[in-house]
Write a structure and sequence with these properties.
The structure is a homodimer of 641-residue chains.
Chain A (H helix, E strand, L loop, with lengths): L9 H22 L4 H6 L1 H8 L16 E4 L5 H11 L5 H5 L29 H20 L7 E6 H5 L1 H13 L4 E7 L2 E2 L2 E2 L8 H7 L3 E6 L3 H12 L5 E6 L22 H10 L11 H7 L3 H11 L3 H12 L15 E3 H15 L3 E5 L3 H4 L8 E3 L2 E2 L2 E3 L4 H14 L3 E7 L7 H10 L4 E5 L17 H6 L5 E3 L4 H14 L3 E4 L4 E3 L6 H5 L3 E5 L6 E5 L4 H13 L4 E5 L3 H5 L3 H7 L3 E5 L13 E3 L10 H7 L4 H11 L1
Parallel strand pairs in A: 1-2, 2-3, 3-7, 6-7, 9-12, 9-13, 10-12, 13-14, 14-16, 15-16, 19-20, 19-21, 21-22
Antiparallel strand pairs in A: 4-5, 8-17, 10-11, 18-20
Helix pairs in contact in A: 1-3, 1-4, 1-12, 3-10, 6-8, 6-17, 8-17, 15-20, 17-18, 22-26
């Protein structure tokens, strides 16, 4: 590398670090909000890292690049400053607009919003797990496409990330899988918001990571050569590697150096002035010396990408094209016949396999519930240490699973799915939220979707979960009434290409729908309609639709005209124009769903839902007990008329 | 101890284990559903543990008892069988009704439902953290009430618990705090649902716990004396102790011994028959030899409690009575004046301190955000290793925090609160759900409650969270419009005594309410009403109420009659009779809330809410951008008329 660290004298490196430090401090000062402490503390590490990362600022999406994750997203000033200095499409004006509405430089880094941001971070611990996801995706890419994908995954994280459970979960899996391309730099500054870390955190981090199968290195976080040596050793450790960089928060921030006060607020004009004086930095705010820009520049990336691309074989290029296209138009979906009985978790298993047959980048697994979630991809092998099948075994680590899938999705070559019981979607909610926020493509398979779970009881029966996930913006929740709708839901979801959840039954459901794709695309459609004038519309989803059909029969016996509206995707129904909705919402409207169901009031006059938690007992007994028998549905409908 | 292990011969112990094993297997077989593997695998450990635990079956709430947590709630057959054998109010008939609707023996153990169950478990990892909560509460009790509370906390857990992030978080805190009364027995059977644990889990568990400051012991899990020795050593280790018990899943289950197949399904009549033959167990199902019942009996607990109670001083008894009474009727709440500007996170901080002044069992803290959440209890000291103040430092471990508070609440002598940013309520959702399910008393303080968060941006701005938590049964969410309502909300919540969340602003809010307690008790009330006839009702909560008041002024200028309804607790409003609701819902109804808000359709014709995630920018700019300016509210209201 022509700009390698060893060719530079210490004075240059120090000048780079000082420039970076004050650029960040100036950004926070100008915004009058932000986190200067971590940016200043990590400036020296960032200078050295700049000499290691392989990126192409002119093409942030170069597939052969190293992946760089800033898990502590509050270090965003540092992130944007680096992107600017490296040559990404982040201007000095953007830095000056830090944390302002509509700027390219929001308070925490946002994927798809700013060039060079691999993943949205901020909620602590997520980035760590995302990095594990990148490393898993990298392994898969190497396996399918060769050594061109033997790039590194760098992750910078802090105490907050390492205290969060998700970091332990994902570190445990990374160690188990031996993800040697993963290098995590731990900014160990012994400070958190409440003060010294030893208020709450005294574990032996080295031992902890060694226990999980990692190599652990330490370095002085303000000593360029020491940092460089650690990064060089990490390249060849043969294991995922943690570099503990001992740093001082707010390094160079005059009397605030080392203080928790630098964490979440500007230094203030006075402190900043004194800090610059001490560093002999007699420049106006946002000043970057020209030669420093040259030293930071990653211009070399353009040539690196060119060479990389030239070395790819035609076959590899074709494989890449297949993976990138994410073309699901040729999937040979299974066919389910009217009257057939099939749990939607079972039909979903067949669908997942059909998709995986057609698109080789479809990968995933379960948090140790594959036999129950029906997520096994047959003849696709396991992803284990040294074995690169497509079936991931996430272990009993739902939270890491979701965040790892975010990493796999953002990697660009794969479409991941993950699975657990619906009630345990709670465990991965923060990761799912980020799927929605990033608008990436992760499929969440949630089986055991209601009181239909039966004997396992209240702890295992989702109640509030549909309301929760339907309230997440940019996220779609599919709850098909039967195996046939399940197929159509997947067709819709894959076409839309957004992250989505499939909420599926444990118990057998009779195939009673012969919907067309256009109907399911609307979110809801008239499944059945009496010949006589409709006085009541029953809206429902999933396992409650067939009881509604039976209730309709009972009502018809009393000469009441009914229609049954199946709503496999409430979120899509919300997007329909009023004219279409008017065809669904005829007469009085009763929504029937074995969930809390308050959101149904958007469409319905009354909701037959769950007012309490579930119970332990046979699923069929519970459906009756909680009022989802055809008789009770009919009775509630009758009362409304 | 007159029934100590050493006095019994091995044959007796084996007979006890065999009885227990087949009792559990029979229960699962009779229910035709359940988890025999873990129960049979742990039978030998359970026999030894029966000789260590100090419990009084005739008074399951004896304060001096050991606490026993079965973190793997799927071991419920074992739990109920033990409770029966020990002499708790669980009959043989109850065992035969295992997992049936309305039985005392649901699929997973439920707090308050079955005598002797300390905490509801099933969602993995929770019980582990609950046990840490019990141990923290035990330390506090010792500090306040003396050595009478130097009981042990036992926790049985499995691979599933230890793979979940929450177990690492809570173990890290337990080690940090040096909770020496905590003894966790890890049922290490090397099997999970997908098969061998080494599919996904290969960390060095001993090293991991040592890294977190624990003592680690190992024992052969089917060798009575070895188990006993480990339990004896654990008593005196001076640290929280993990006993790794190497067991075989489904021990004694004939050819299924050691197989994942014994995990989640009955053994089947044939296998069970062969298993009993091999064990020379020629008895009908559910048979328990009389002498075995005597050996298991914990009858001694009654005498133990008597002695324990006699030794309490009068002063200690009075202190216990104070803590148990949980009397909040004498709290000297702060007073806030109309027009005063105060963030509700700030008023809440003052309220927490007022409560802590009046009730000495009020304890809590934040997940490293105390200065932001305003949760510091002044002059109450820190809870650290060897120091028993009332301010807990949970570290950046939201999930463990919630579950630890469940343990502290269930302990019986304290009322805990915990805190984080509202958006990170996602991180602790599984624990919060269990607070609701158990109907215990944990207060969740969630500050930074909307786009009002400002510059930190979309990752830090809650959108779906109100909808989520309002959909949780038996849980109440308070979102006061100002400091005055904040006080009343606490009065209501403490009177109701249920777990609840307080959703509070980061930004200053003007005190504009002079509500009375009876009004807030209703969940919602008319805050302002035009003198002219009301054509439109504006329903709102929190920081959006004052903009609604301003919108009302704008509308009145156009001669439109308006009323503004403040809804500090949506959940309570749901419980009001129609007559009262009719006084609130006059004319067309527009709900205004900076959240997803679909549940408002229960009351409103239209909702002005959030359709997307938030953005980074100044809070005031965001309120305008997303439509929560008085002008836009008035305009939306006008459009409805």
């Amino acid at each position: 590398m022509d700009l390698s660290l060893s060719l530079k004298d210490k004075t240059t490196l120090e000048k780079m670090a000082t420039s970076l430090r004050f650029l960040c401090a100036d950004m926070v000062q100008e915004a009058n909000s932000g986190h200067p402490g971590v940016a200043m503390g990590l400036a020296d590490v960032a200078v050295v890292l700049s000499h290691h990362v392989r990126l192409n600022p002119t093409n942030p999406k170069w597939l052969g690049r190293d992946r760089l994750v800033f898990s502590g997203g509050h270090a965003s000033a540092l992130v944007y400053a680096l992107l600017h200095l490296w040559g990404f499409n982040v201007s000095l004006e953007d830095l000056k607009a830090f944390r302002q509405l509509h700027s390219l430089t929001p308070g925490h880094p946002e994927y798809k919003h700013t060039a060079g941001i691999e993943v949205t971070t901020g909620p602590l611990g997520q980035g760590f797990a995302n990095a594990v996801g990148f490393a898993i995706a990298g392994k898969m890419a190497q396996d399918m496409l060769g050594n061109a994908f033997s790039h590194k995954v760098y992750c910078l994280c802090g105490d907050g990330d390492l205290q969060e459970g998700i970091s332990y979960e994902s570190a445990s899996l990374a160690g188990h899988l031996g993800l040697a391309d993963l290098i995590v730099i731990y900014d160990s500054n012994a400070i958190t918001i409440e003060g010294d870390t030893n208020l709450a955190f005294s574990e032996n981090v080295r031992l902890r990571f060694e226990a999980q199968g990692w190599a652990v290195l330490e370095c002085k976080g303000h000593d360029f050569l020491d940092i460089d040596q650690a990064l060089n050793q990490a390249q060849v450790s043969g294991k995922p590697t943690l570099i503990i960089a001992h740093t001082t928060i707010g390094k160079g921030a005059s009397e605030l150096e080392g203080s928790a006060k630098t964490h979440g607020a500007p230094l203030g004009a006075e402190v900043l002035k004194r800090a610059k004086e001490a560093a002999k930095w007699a420049h106006p705010p946002f000043y970057i010396p020209e030669e420093i820009k040259l030293h930071f520049s990653l211009q070399r990336g353009e040539a690196e990408e060119k060479l990389w691309t030239q070395a790819l074989s035609q076959k590899t290029k074709e494989q890449i094209a297949h993976l990138q296209a994410k073309d699901f138009s040729k999937v040979a979906y299974p066919v389910f016949e009217l009257g057939q009985k099939c749990a939607t978790r079972a039909s979903n298993g067949a669908i997942l396999n059909a998709i995986a047959q057609s698109y080789l980048g479809f990968v995933g697994g379960s948090a140790d519930l594959a036999p129950s979630n029906n997520t096994r991809l047959k003849e696709r092998g396991d992803f284990l240490k040294g074995v690169c099948g497509r079936n991931l075994h996430f272990g009993i680590r739902e939270h890491a699973m979701g965040a790892i899938c975010n990493g796999i999705s953002n990697y660009g070559l794969f479409v991941p799915f993950c699975a657990t019981f619906f009630v345990f979607s709670d465990y991965l909610a923060p990761a799912l939220r980020l799927s929605a926020l990033m608008q990436n493509q992760v499929y969440y398979v949630f089986t055991h979707d209601s009181i239909g779970v039966g004997e396992d009881g209240a702890t295992h029966q989702p109640i509030e979960h549909l309301s929760h996930l339907r309230a997440v913006p940019h996220f779609e929740v599919y709850r098909p009434m039967d195996a046939h709708e399940n197929v159509l839901c997947w067709q819709v979801a894959l076409k839309r290409g957004k992250s989505a959840a499939f909420v599926l039954s444990r118990q057998d459901l009779e195939v009673a729908s012969c919907a067309r794709l256009e109907q399911v695309q609307r979110g809801g459609y008239v499944l059945y309609k009496s010949t006589k004038e409709v006085q009541i519309s029953l809206l429902s989803s999933g396992s409650e639709v067939v009881p509604c059909l039976k209730a309709a029969s009972l009502l018809e016996e009393e000469n009441i005209g009914v229609q049954v509206v199946s709503v496999p995707c409430f979120d899509l129904l919300l997007q329909q124009e009023q004219e279409y909705l008017n065809t669904l919402l005829v007469g009085v409207v009763l929504a029937v769903e074995a969930s809390r169901g308050l959101e149904w009031f958007k469409f319905a006059d009354e909701v037959l839902g769950m007012q309490s938690f579930g119970k332990s007992g046979k699923g069929a007994d519970l459906f009756t007990y909680f009022g989802f028998s055809p008789e009770n549905i009919a009775s509630r409908a009758r009362a409304l008329l």
